[in-house]
Write a structure and sequence with these properties.
Two copies of one chain form a homodimer. The first copy, chain A, folds into two domains: about 40 residues, Winged helix-like DNA-binding domain superfamily/Winged helix DNA-binding domain (Arc Repressor Mutant, subunit A, Orthogonal Bundle); about 80 residues, Lrp/AsnC effector binding domain/regulation of amino acid metabolism (RAM) domain (Alpha-Beta Plaits, 2-Layer Sandwich), CATH 3.30.70.920. In chain A, strands 3-4-2-5 form a four-stranded antiparallel β-sheet. Chain A has about 150 residues and is of the alpha+beta class. The two termini of chain A are about 10 Å apart. The first copy, chain A, is elongated. Chains A and B meet through helix 1, strand 1, helix 4, helix 5 and strand 3 of A and helix 1, strand 1, helix 4, helix 5 and strand 3 of B. Chain A binds a DNA duplex (30 and 30 nucleotides) through helix 3.
Chain lengths: ~150, ~150
DNA sequence: CCCCTGATTGGCAGATTTTGCCAATTTATA
DNA sequence: TATAAATTGGCAAAATCTGCCAATCAGGGG
């Protein structure tokens, strides 16, 4: 992981579909060592995959919600159960374990408010063992980028 | 935006670099109409771009932080100033306007705790007009996907 | 200071993929 | 049902990918 690798990573975060030729030019390499570095980053798991960035509203998912959840108990069994169930819910795009007053923060995508109510009632509450839920809707997005800051 | 478009979108969210030929096969089209649909989704802004998914820790950014910020005043000028400044900060990958007790939630990536302290002192506080800051560090990630739920 | 070793690079060529064009098919509308 | 519009599939030229080999570079030991 040298400077060249970091350049490659940031270029592919900006445009994950750029051709290897363009990428090579952008980082001052010829195509073949450039491709070799990319494949290497993929094999080592530094680059975990590639994905299309899609406008959720245009797709029909107008509402983004951050849901913060606290469990009643934190024994191994209840924690495992919660995490396993959460992973299976398609509307949950992200779930992190957090410091602070709440245990988890979820990023959830739903078409409308009614769907959010159903999500909480039919997907979250049935898991059981939940002490409290705190919901914040996203009004607007000021910034959203996939490009990491240059580190050193 | 029909079923086929949604299939294409979800396939490209799973693997943004799959070849058009494979994509066409996955959605039961021949390559040329498939590519035409993709280009159309890009032109309409439904697909906003493509990006590499990178392991932050492997890149050297071990710490993910969600920062919730409340402003002192909400007049046009202070709000614009805050948002403009936040957009320029490389460590901030996301910033959303939120309902609830806090005004904004930021997703921030830094190499270590010291860098986070510097981030707050040198990047956030100097903006001014901030009433309160609430920090939650990410301990672990239970789920993270780019693939939207199928909407109807 | 030079040589040796291992790692990385650049160029080449065959295989694969993209992409614009046209005729044929399907879908929607009157 | 007839017509118009939109969408599709196939083809071929252009661009790209990717494995291989010789050349170059960086670092350590004598």
């Amino acid at each position: 992981m040298d400077t060249k690798d970091r350049q490659i990573i940031r270029a592919l975060q900006r445009d994950g579909r750029m051709t290897n030729q363009d990428l090579a030019e952008a980082v001052n390499l010829s195509p073949s060592p450039c491709l070799r570095r990319v494949r290497n980053l993929e094999a080592k798991g530094v680059i975990q995959g590639y994905s299309a960035e899609v406008d959720p509203a245009a797709y029909g998912l107008a509402i983004t919600v951050f849901v913060r959840i606290k469990l009643e108990r934190h024994n191994e069994e209840d924690v495992q159960k919660f995490e396993k169930r959460v992973r299976l819910i398609d509307e949950v795009l992200e779930c992190h374990v957090m410091t602070g007053a709440m245990d988890y923060q979820l990023r959830v995508l739903v078409p409308d408010l009614e769907a959010y109510e159903n999500f909480i009632r039919n997907r979250i509450h049935p898991i059981g063992g939940i002490a409290s839920i705190d919901t914040s809707f996203v009004y607007g997005t000021v910034k959203r980028t996939a490009v990491f800051p240059l580190s050193r």
